Amino acid sequence: EYDGERSSEGERHGRGKARLPNGDTYEGEYQHGFRSGQGIYRFKNGAYYTGEYLQNKKHGRGIFFYPDGSKYEGDWVNDQRHGYGVYTYANGDTYTGEWSNHNRHGQGTYIYKDTGSKYVGGWANGIQEGQAELIHLNHRFKGRFLKGNPVGRGKYVFDIGCEQHGEYIPSQQDKGEEEEEEDEPSLLVEPKWKASEITKLTLWTPHGENPPSPRQASLVTAEAGAAAEAVEE
Predict the structure, then answer these.
(1) 177: Cβ–Cβ under 8 A, 6 or more apart, which residues?
(2) Class in CATH terms, 91-169+190-204
């Protein structure tokens, strides 16, 4: 059913309302028979999209409210999340950053609501990959990720003023098949962390300023034991 403006050729053109055969509804702009321009599309399952269309496809800026309570607000290309956008998940987690073909892809920040932890760095096809920081309440990990897990050399930086350097060694554990849904990344770390040394913080200082004294450095190293034990479980 359609109620709205038409062109001289009889095509849906201008503003109108439509009820589709599957029970979905659309209210918004049309161009030459296609949903094009601003509109609101409501799915019979309760989900709805409000934003820009181009030839019946979500294209441009728009907000999609999913049936599980999650929401995406950002760029769309050819019915896909593509460009820059913010996804709020049903559990309260959020991802803010780049998207490609419906997946988290490029640079982005994922915040875990329950713990307050934050992943800031690279993504590839929805999975954590590339240089990144995993920031926790009182310490952070800086290194490289591959297929959702830290890999190779990196360091933990502790708020008490020290760094623990080391590397992640691949685990032999079989994880099994992974789910293909658009889901929240896990904070669980499969590879084994192998620490190599503890140092004072490597701070950037403008040229000409004096670095910390040897006494300050030794105090920092002395305080590092408890922090190191927290990581080496």
Answers:
(1) none
(2) mainly beta
